[in-house]
Design goal:
- The chain contains 16 helices and eleven strands.
- The protein is α/β, with parallel strands linked by helices and about 475 residues long.
- The chain has a six-stranded mixed beta sheet with strand order 5-10-11-9-7-8, sandwiched between helices. It has a five-stranded mixed beta sheet with strand order 1-3-2-4-6, sandwiched between helices.
- Helix content is about 40%, strand content about 15%.
- The structure holds glutamine.
- The site of glutamine (GLN) has 13 residues, from loops.
């Protein structure tokens, strides 16, 4: 059996009756059973739901009916995305037995397009983290180097794709959580523009930043998944009415003469020498493809980490107020209501989530609001303006995804600030609302993967995918 299935590969095999959707899913579950005990990438398997879906697909095949775009494609869903009837824990103890009564729109659309949901993937608690080590259910191991982290917070979603335990997955990105694990696990991973994909059913971390997006084994499959999940959803008023282009057709457009901005601020101190070498070689590859490289400045980049950690924690402190032991998940009983709240939240949340609730409450509190939260919002506008200025001159922006290669498990857990600094290149695009992809860009010393990040103008996903596809096809993963 082919180890590396692609969406087209699955479709062809089904249509030619080489394998049934049921057999394919069973094969993936076999692989999961073999590898998941060591990787810890799946938290919950949804075999029954998968069975219902594969029966539907196999009936279509048997009836000679046309197959939907993702027919029979085994996918995995990050555990912060709601799945009806299937446990959705957010990597937290506070939701350890929570079973959503409805599906996220992205999940509903995947299934309507024929995808088979294998299960839910591990992640940092409430998507807060960059290494997956903040999960209440234990860390995920990087399938490419098992002493290393897979990145985070969508570490499980990246690991399952890299290990061949799913053809594609959904992750979420608030400050880098799709792109950075994609980079760490050597798979393409995309965050569309804010508003491109409905957030309905995504359990909120920071609502003005949160986005759902795909990880897959190649850019074409990333495009195919985005195609299905993108577009207006009446359940999410921040989802855009802008039409969704045909991404897969756009992929084939020539990249020659496109202007690519290289922002000086993303190549400063603090970048690992091995990462730098790979990214520079990757950028050279674009030159060979006929693109024009242009040095640009994005002067507010230095403020992005501070701004992100003010705005994201402020929103998190408000969003996470709902976990009070009354309506959802865990409750630790006590005679007084206040003590019940305290005990429930004390026992249910992990250290990083508590740290962020405290930080967020602080930056929103009377007397500090103007100095931190309001200031943060103003700087956010300046960062967005940097992107607007850049896109007046260039068609896309190239940067590293992460300043460092995948680090060792446990190496940064005692130093939250070091962990926050790892987000330096990804949080800018999050604050600005622009789309971004991470594509594999060689292996450092032949081993650990580096990721090249491509930012596009708002709703310019097609351009981002087109460049990523050209890069991949030109051998970007092996530079
Ligand atoms: N690592 C960042 C954080 O900890 C981003 C997380 C995310 O994108 N969900 O907040």
């Amino acid at each position: 059996m082919t180890a590396n299935w692609t969406i087209d590969g699955v479709k062809e095999a089904l249509a030619a009756k080489k394998i049934s959707a049921r057999e394919l899913a069973a094969d993936f579950y076999k692989r999961i059973e073999a590898r998941n005990p060591e990787l810890n990438a799946f938290l919950t398997l949804s075999k029954e739901r998968a069975r219902r879906q594969t029966d539907k697909i196999d009936a279509l095949v048997a009836g000679g009916k046309p197959l939907p775009p993702l027919a029979g494609v085994p996918v995995a869903i990050k555990d912060v995305i709601s799945t009806r009837g299937i446990k959705t824990t957010c990597g937290s103890k506070i939701l350890q037995n929570y079973i959503p009564p409805y599906d996220a729109t992205a999940v509903e659309r995947l299934e309507a397009a024929g995808a088979v949901i294998l299960g839910k993937t591990n992640c940092d608690e409430f998507a807060m983290g960059s290494s997956n080590e903040n999960s209440a259910y234990g860390p995920v191991k990087n399938p490419l180097a098992q002493d290393r982290v897979p990145g985070g917070s969508s570490g499980g979603s990246a690991a399952v794709v890299a290990a061949g335990l799913a053809v594609a997955s959904l992750g979420t990105d608030t400050g880098g959580s799709i792109r950075q694990p994609g980079s760490f696990c050597g798979v393409p991973a995309m965050m569309g523009s804010y508003g491109r994909v409905s957030r309905y059913g995504l359990i909120a971390f920071a609502s003005s930043l949160d986005r759902i997006g795909p990880l897959a084994t190649n850019v074409e499959d990333v495009a195919a998944i985005l195609q299905v999940i993108a577009g207006r959803d009446p359940h999410d008023s921040t989802s855009t009415t802008a039409p969704v282009p045909d991404y897969r057709t756009e992929l084939e457009k020539p990249v020659k003469r496109l202007r690519l901005g290289i922002p000086k601020e993303y190549f400063g101190e603090g970048m690992d020498a091995g990462v730098r070498k790979k990214i520079e070689t990757g950028i050279e590859l674009f030159k060979k493809l006929g693109c024009q490289l242009i040095d640009i400045r994005m002067p507010h980049t230095d403020y992005a980490i501070a701004t992100y950690y003010i705005i994201a924690t402020a929103e998190a402190s408000s969003n996470l107020a709902r976990y009070d032991g009354v309506r959802y998940g865990l409750r630790v009983d006590d005679d007084s209501l206040l003590a019940m709240y305290r005990k429930t939240r004390g026992a249910g949340f992990g250290a990083e989530v508590k740290r962020r609730i405290v930080l967020g409450t602080y930056v929103l509190s009377a007397g500090y609001y103007d100095a931190y939260y309001l200031k943060g919002q103003k700087v956010r506008s300046l960062i967005a303006q940097d992107f607007r200025d850049a896109f007046a001159k260039v068609d896309a922006i190239l940067t590293p995804t992460s300043p460092v290669p995948p680090f060792k498990l446990g190496e940064r857990t005692d130093d939250p600030l070091q962990m926050y600094l790892a987000d330096i290149y990804t949080v800018t695009g999050s604050l600005a609302g622009v789309p971004g992809i991470s594509v594999p860009c060689g292996r450092i010393d032949g081993k650990l993967p580096a990721g090249l990040q491509i930012f596009g103008a708002p709703f310019g996903e097609a351009r981002v995918l087109q460049l990523a596809h050209a890069f991949e096809r030109a051998g970007g993963a092996a530079v």
